[in-house]
Model the fold of this input.
Amino acid sequence: MESQKRAFALWRTVPTIAGFLFAFVAAVSAQSRINLAGSGSNVAGPLFVAWTDEFNKKNPAIQVRYLPLSSEEGIEQIKSSSGDFAIGEIPLSQEQMHDPKAPLVQIPVLLVAVVPVYNVPGGGELRFSGKILAQIYLGAIKNWNDPAISRLNPDVTLPDLPIEVFHRDEGRGTSYIFTDFLSRKSPEFRSQVGKSASPKWPVGTTAKRSVDMVEKVKATPGAIGYVERSFAIRASLAFGSVQNSSGNFVKADPASMTAACVATEGSVRQDVRISLVDARGEASYSITGVTWVYLPASGLSSERGHALKEFLAWVLEDGQKMAPLLGYTSLPASLASKAREKLGTVQ
Done:
């Protein structure tokens, strides 16, 4: 009987021992695993979440998490060393890249396009010029049947309907790209508003996130707004073609965005800075931009630095193949090659 009791007591301890061993192994595993954190652009948020999920499945020793905030907040986070990397559509300034306390590096990872989205009953597919968009966002053009809009769209019967303007809140990469384009096309817009991620809009209603923008435009007859192309596509929201520097009206798609990039690649600097807005070329889409990854130029531990570079190398290789599946546009091969070279210089 005593032997049976001892055997039963030992049997009851097995789950406890097994649980302890499992917890011990898990703790050791967690200690050996490197966790990387990034934040920033809402524009690239859906793709970065998909990228991190896929990378994490294939690389259990390196786990990456991404928090969508805004481009401007991402830059502030990485400047203060709150995280390992950040994402955004605002190119870094010379001061940010050469800050003696915390120098940063930016590397392109994606092409993006800001498109004018609208809700015009019976309007069909519309054409816009930079000057017309600037006048709308300055509040000078107030109705959809304005003669200036009608001249660009002679085959469309435009309704007598007030234009309801929507714009983003502060710190947004889409606003930076959009206002850069409008400032190039309208001296009046440049002097009154200018190029900024946090412009002081003279008219309009604020939409905080890209999904908020598409929902507000879809729900408001007469509305106009701007978002990255992938959000318009996912929401089945109409977006217009935009007149480029050659005078052609071009709609944003992977071909026209890539054309803008190829037309501009000759101006890529050693620090990989490049502006695709108002690019030359008959087939170029004029409001094309870049999503950048921002990271410290140096200072990460060798282990964390190696893990971060492994993740970003994957983004610039296998990750590029995933981008079109979610409505995004991957980098042209030549720019992706330059991006990988730049990544190799990070200490």
User: Anything to note?
Assistant: The longest strand covers residues 104-118.
